[in-house]
Write a structure and sequence with these properties.
The complex is a heterodimer of chains A (210) and B (332).
Chain A (H helix, E strand, L loop, with lengths): L6 E2 L7 E10 L6 H10 L12 E10 L2 E10 L9 H5 L4 E7 L3 H17 L5 E7 L11 H10 L3 E4 L8 H11 L31
Parallel strand pairs in A: 2-4, 2-5, 5-6, 6-7
Antiparallel strand pairs in A: 1-2, 3-4
Chain B lengths: L18 H27 L9 H8 L7 H9 L1 H7 L3 H7 L4 H10 L21 H14 L9 H12 L2 H15 L9 H17 L1 H9 L4 H10 L8 H14 L2 H13 L1 H5 L4 H11 L3 H4 L1 H8 L8 H15 L2
Helix pairs in contact in B: 3-13, 4-9, 6-7, 7-8, 7-9, 8-9, 10-11, 10-12, 10-14, 10-19, 13-14, 13-18, 14-18
The chains are: A alpha/beta (210), B mainly alpha (332).
The complex binds guanosine-5'-triphosphate and magnesium ion.
């Protein structure tokens, strides 16, 4: 997996390109795929197909002098797919653990994911907690304060998001990008193929680098 | 040919749908279809509805079952028809029994999330053609009858497609019951062991046939299960173009699970050069996502010939041996 923090771009002394592997985890139907679809394509589907196995997408964001390219693994949420998850979070520099604010069980499940990541993922992984479907505030079952307190205790980034209205979607990815180390050492142990010419790749549309 | 935004099975075509290649392919495929249909009536069925296993039938099935015969042949050849006849009324009874509320809840969540871009899966309960209610029934009855399996995401896509083709929900139920118990045991159980094992088996089969490709995938860190989990769980439903999928399923219901490996091997080995040109893992993933839908996979008649040629000899014994090996590895 080609992950490198801080490859120097040859044609711009100031601009670095960093590539990070990010994984989305959380119960089925909390909105993982919807968040990714919103972030990558700026779209929302009222009915989003259930994810089988995992889906892979990329998106690029610009941060000051750095271009951050996310390699996103959107995993399947059903419990029986759980045993496949380590394959996706192994070597990930960031994770978004998603729950649905209208469903208390999904918050419990999110906590389980956080614990698993803390124990099994890379020690420096940046974890964000996303309370999704914030547009359904009238059906809220998980209080903002409760989730925020939990996130603080566990040093997680935390935001309530809505893939439907786009609220905080770019923001949560940006917050992660900010928190990720962007120096030459970052993520080195995972980088199998250094020196890849990133400039050849198609830049996805809809990002801030248009 | 008139271009429509909906295909004959009710799927809305995406914006990037390649009408040109599709029409090019359909021009020849339509004549293949009509030739096959007349050969089936005049040389094979000759007025009868029942067929029995034979080299000739196998050959005919590999060249494609005409759509009017597809439901009957799938039912007969998979053994689902026998199950259905030996268990009259069972499906109706299963539906009437009291179901585990959690099973019902999980399935309910996935009904609107099954083929949302197909016109028969829209929220139109009064439309007799709407497949949402039959889909719910089939999945609930299946999970209720097979409590050790329950509901596994992915079954919704298989059942959904079967409903579009076979139409009769009781028949679809028995096809699904045969599939999960006889044809692909272990795939849908909570530990999904069958899927994990078969992913590794596919990798090993690649290794023997194309060591360079295997070594490349390994060095890129492309685990086989990352590549093929959805292929296996959905038996290529929601993966391959639909005409191709149906042709693969023709063989699946006659010959069994071996054809899954043939398809997987053909996709990977035929496209080896494209994969080998990739510079890193993400690019490999995008390439593989593209090849399952490209012209080669779309051209189902050639593709089906290729799956029986390209991967060379593939014996049940070879698969069995590898499965046993990986089962032992996983239980360590
Ligand atoms: N109101 C509202 N609905 C949402 C939001 N995000 C997702 N949904 C809906 O919730 C359902 C499930 O969303 P998905 O994105 O498929 O959920 P997922 O977490 O990827 O689920 P799995 O793939 O099964 O793990 C879809 O029908 C979405 O339209 C949101 O922010 N607000
Ligand atoms: Mg999803």
């Amino acid at each position: 997996m080609a992950n490198q923090g801080g490859a120097q771009r040859p044609n711009g002394p100031q601009s670095k390109i960093c590539q990070f592997k990010l994984v989305l985890l959380g119960e089925s139907a909390v909105g993982k795929s919807s968040l990714v679809l919103r972030f990558v394509k700026g779209q929302f589907h009222e009915y989003q197909e259930s994810t089988i196995g995992a889906a892979f997408l990329t998106q690029t964001v610009c941060l000051d002098d750095t271009t951050v390219k996310f390699e996103i693994w959107d995993t399947a949420g059903q419990e029986r797919y759980h045993s496949l998850a380590p394959m996706y979070y192994r070597g990930a520099q960031a994770a978004i653990v998603v729950y649905d604010i209208t469903n208390q069980d999904t918050f419990g499940r999110a906590k389980t994911w956080v614990r698993e990541l803390q124990r099994q993922a890379s020690p420096n992984i940046v974890i964000a907690l996303a309370g999704n479907k914030a547009d359904l505030a009238n059906k809220r079952m998980v209080e903002y304060e409760e989730a925020q307190a939990y996130a603080e205790e566990n040093s997680l980034l935390f935001m309530e998001t809505s893939a439907k209205t786009a609220m905080n979607v770019n923001d949560i990815f940006l917050a992660i990008a900010k928190k990720l180390p962007k120096n030459e050492q970052a993520g080195q142990q995972q980088s199998r193929q250094r020196g890849v010419d990133l400039s050849q790749e198609n830049q996805p549309s809809g990002g801030c680098c248009k | 040919m008139a271009t429509s935004n909906v295909d004959p099975y009710g799927f809305e075509r995406t914006e990037d749908f390649d009408f040109e290649s599709y029409e090019e392919f359909m021009k020849t495929y339509l004549s293949v279809l009509s030739r096959r249909a007349s050969r089936w009536s005049s040389d094979l069925l000759m007025g009868s509805k029942k067929v029995s296993r034979s080299q000739k039938l196998k050959r005919f099935i590999r060249k494609g079952i005409p759509s009017e015969h597809r439901p009957t042949i799938w039912m007969q050849m998979s053994g689902a028809e026998t199950r259905r006849q030996q268990n009259p009324n069972v499906y109706r009874q299963l539906l009437q029994e009291k179901h585990d509320p959690q099973l019902v809840e999980t399935i309910k969540t996935d009904i609107p999330r099954t083929f949302p871009d197909n016109i028969y899966f829209q929220d139109t309960p009064s439309d007799p053609q709407c497949k949402r209610a039959p889909l719910f029934n089939v999945l609930v009855a299946l999970g209720h009858k097979n409590p050790s399996i329950g509901y596994c995401q992915g079954l919704n896509f298989i059942a959904g497609l079967l409903l579009l083709i076979v139409k009769d929900e009781e028949k679809v139920f028995w096809l699904m019951d045969t599939l999960i118990n006889n044809m692909l045991p272990d795939y849908y159980a909570p530990d999904m062991m069958g899927v994990k094992i078969d992913s590794e088996v596919l990798g090993d089969l690649v290794k023997v046939r194309d060591p360079q490709l295997y070594a490349f995938m390994e060095s890129a860190g492309a685990a086989w299960s990352i590549v093929c989990t959805k292929w296996l769980i959905c038996v290529f439903a929601d993966v391959l173009p639909i005409e191709t999928l149906l042709r693969v399923w023709d063989c699946l219901f006659y010959e069994g699970d071996k054809v899954i490996f043939r398809v997987g091997l053909t996709l990977l080995i035929h496209n080896r050069d494209k994969i080998l040109r990739c510079q890193h893992f993400p690019q490999i993933m995008s390439t593989i996502k593209a090849i399952v839908m490209d012209e080669y996979s779309l051209n189902c008649h050639n593709f089906l010939q290729a799956i029986f040629k390209e991967p060379k000899r593939l014996s049940r014994a070879e698969i069995q041996k590898l499965r046993l090996h990986h089962r032992a590895q996983f239980s360590k």
